[in-house]
Design goal:
Elements lengths: L1 H37 L6 E3 L4 E3 L3 H10 L3 H22 L5 H27 L4 H24 L1 H4 L7 H10 L2 H4 L2
Antiparallel strand pairs: 1-2
Amino acid sequence: MEYTKFGMYAIKILLSNSSKSTLDEKNLETISNLKFIGTIQSGEKIDSKTLQVEHPGIFTSIKRFITGESRTALYEFITNTIHRIFEIINAKCNSESISDKYMCKNMINDLINCVVGLKNIQKTYEKDKKFYCEIDTLIESVRAKLTELEIKHSEIFSLDTGKDDHQKEIIKNNETPKNKNK
């Protein structure tokens, strides 16, 4: 009987450690996806299933049609990634762990860089007004949530993550005209 209790306890520990590892791996994958979004250049089309950059051309159009890749799939990938990032930030920003706070700061920087990628996606699909507006609304939502985080967790924003001058310039250029006057 004692061995059975011990065995059940050992199984619970193994399962909890394995699910934690899986959760951490999923978080890292989500963070990596966010970083990827921030690197998207104007004119690039993205296969949201493989995260491969596809350059415009007849073969890309045919491949995207055959595989069912579309702006809708890209939009779902982007919104799911951003939504999940905010969930991770909200879970970690209240942590006592310094590494969690630094991870939050890094994810916040990645969200700021993500806006650059979103603007490039807008340029790629500028003729599709509906999609352009959906991305614009997403950008506004990201900025609003970042503002809320800055108000609620200003200590995270004041952490020094060793940003270089180039990153500071990107952040400065991502500010809206309304924010620059404040």
